[in-house]
Amino acid sequence: ASSGEVNAVVTDKPGMLMNTKLMSDPKWEDQDITPLGIVLVGRSVVKILGPINKFDKVGVSSNYPGVGASLSGPNASPSSPSIGIALESNQDSGVKLVECALQISLD
Fold first, then answer.
1. 76 near 93, Cβ under 8 Å?
2. Regarding predicted confidence, which is higher, 39 or 71?
3. Please, is 15 exposed, middle or buried when counting C-beta atoms within 10 Å of its C-beta (0-12, 13-18, 19+)?
């Protein structure tokens, strides 16, 4: 995450889980594979470090891999792209879950 690249946000409540047929393919039966839900676009909770206000742009935390931060706050990586906006405010300085509207660019 230090490069500021974001591919997706991991979720435990995906709207749709793709490629589930792969799990029943015999060539994978001896593998310990767990499907992983990801979000590219839409609403999802995101782990956020530090205070965030409703409608703040969300980016990558500079100190915690896999955690987001408000791009207007001190915890965001300077090179982080915006991955979406916060849909709620939370002034807790630690890591917490915040509902966000996501739109992750893959270019």
1. no
2. 71
3. exposed
Q: What is the mean pLDDT of residues 91-99?
A: 96
Neighbours of 51 (CB within 10 A): 18
**What pTM did the predictor assign?**
0.77
Percent of the chain predicted with pLDDT > 70: 87
Tokens of 38: 């990801």
SS3 23: helix
Neighbouring-strand partners of residue 78: none
* DSSP helix/strand/coil, 61: strand
- Average pLDDT over the chain reads 84
Q: How far is CA 50 from CA 20, 29, 57, 66, 74, in A?
A: 36, 42, 13, 14, 8
